[in-house]
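G., the chain you wanted modeled:
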Amino acid sequence: MFFVLSKLLQYAVSPLLWILGLLVFGLISKKAPLNRNCLRAAVLLLLFFTNPFLSNEVWLAWEPAPVLMREVKTYDAGIVLTGVTEENKAPYDRVHYGEGPERILDAIQLYKTGRLKKIIISGGSGSLSAVTRTEASNLRQTALYAGVPAQDILLEERSRNTRENALYTQELLKGQPQLQKLLLITSAFHMRRAQGCFDQAGLQTDPFPTDFRTHNRSFAVDDLLIPDPEALQKWSNLIHEWVGYVTYKVLSYS
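Predicted structure as tokens:
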């Protein structure tokens, strides 16, 4: 039930839905003061959520600082969280990535430079419908193509969300007692919630945030004044993560 509700909630927290709701209400309302206020609010929200400077500043405040590759010590395993591939996209002879392929690409680089002995890929499917392949198997395919030996890749393919990533990875590691020192690899915006879940599951990890969605602070005119629809999408992603973070805290999942 929690899994289904979380999927529905991601639409309810979309700023675009709020803006459209105000526009529709403002257009159909028969009360002049109310419809004008709704339309004004919709325009103001649209300008706010499409401002690239404001979006980037909020993301900069939320994302943790990057960790330099050369400062990463040797770990028994790196745990890579999924949520970055299209599972039901043909043709099926390749992996189709959305945002966030750096999760597995950075893990491969860390493995190739001797900083990871094993790569654990955690993730079944976040889809409500049946899928052809799990996300973990998709990322495994990328690692194999990059030359990582099959024996150094461990898969957890049951999880559907971050909490289950932690719980099922913890179960997997019970059969791998030699893997003690762990590096958690996920998108920077997702790291706070992810590490909280792994802490709650009793797995101590060091963070390696990746897939940064920000750029260096810019006061250029186009960033300050020109609306950008990408900023609206970034706000949607971040608000969704905030809601997930708070929900997990309330439910003691992290």
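Strands lie at 75-81, 116-122, 153-156, 182-187, 205-210.

Shout if anything looks off.
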